[in-house]
């Protein structure tokens, strides 16, 4: 078979190599449009009311953007990192609340975090919360790597140090408020030294209990302590009720005795004065004074004798003198 002429071959291949003018136009417009859309959508950002944005240009810090709509250089020249600097954040130790938005709020090592040893070498399971806020977004991002996990480690270290200086009774009962306050002070000192842009506001102990194998024994101890406190309170109440009453009665009797003593002294002094006046009169007229004193005395004594009959010693009969009616 004879091959076709070379002119026919070229004419046959050329239509396959040529592209329509419309296709070439879209090949230019479509990438350009995508490039423009990327530039438009990457040239602005929005900051929520409870956050601030750290703006970087080629990775270098530029400024802190407040809440609202802001513009920046597109195509990755400027980048904005949203930091919840105007919101109260918290970390949970030993337990976890479902649905938390803060990735550092809970940890997968909750059981290890809550198991602690007290100063008297007893075991206790401590669950607590630390509330904090980001005081400087710039320092929070650039001062320390992984600030959230670093804060968890610092808080756990402070709590272990405080628990290690306390007895198990203090941890479980009366010392919880002091433990939380002391751990907060330790944490504040460390954060101030590291200057990582975080301010700790509060540490709160949620649940403190002994390990499960000794839970029953500790419950018995707590009940005994509560009963002791109840009996002490009842005894103090009884003391406060009886002692003031007894003191009042004693003061009343002392006052009565003092009044009686003053009365007797005054009466004695009056009797002495009266006796002195009688003595003067007696010295002047002994017989008359003696008779008068006798009559006055009998006038006071006889009415107190009741129904008495006085007869002469020479009387022979007594019955006829009686009034039997």
How would you briefly describe this protein structure?
It is built from nine helices and nine strands. The protein is of the alpha+beta class and 325 residues long.
Strand fraction equals: 15-25%
How is the biggest beta sheet arranged? 4 strands, antiparallel
- The CATH H-level superfamily of the domain at 89-210 is Band 7 domain
Helix share of residues? 40-55%
**Got a strand count?**
9
Task: Output the helix-strand order.
Answer: HHEEEEEEHEEHHHHEHH
- Which CATH C-level class of the domain at 89-210 is it? Alpha Beta
What is the fold named in CATH at topology level of the domain at 89-210? Tetrahydropterin Synthase, Chain A
Shape: rod-shaped
| Helix/strand class | alpha+beta
Rg over alpha carbons: 54 Å
Alpha plus pi helix count: 9
Mean pLDDT: 83
Q: How far is it from the N-terminal to the C-terminal residue, by CA?
A: 193 Å
pLDDT < 50 stretches: 8-17
CATH hierarchy: architecture of the domain at 89-210: 2-Layer Sandwich
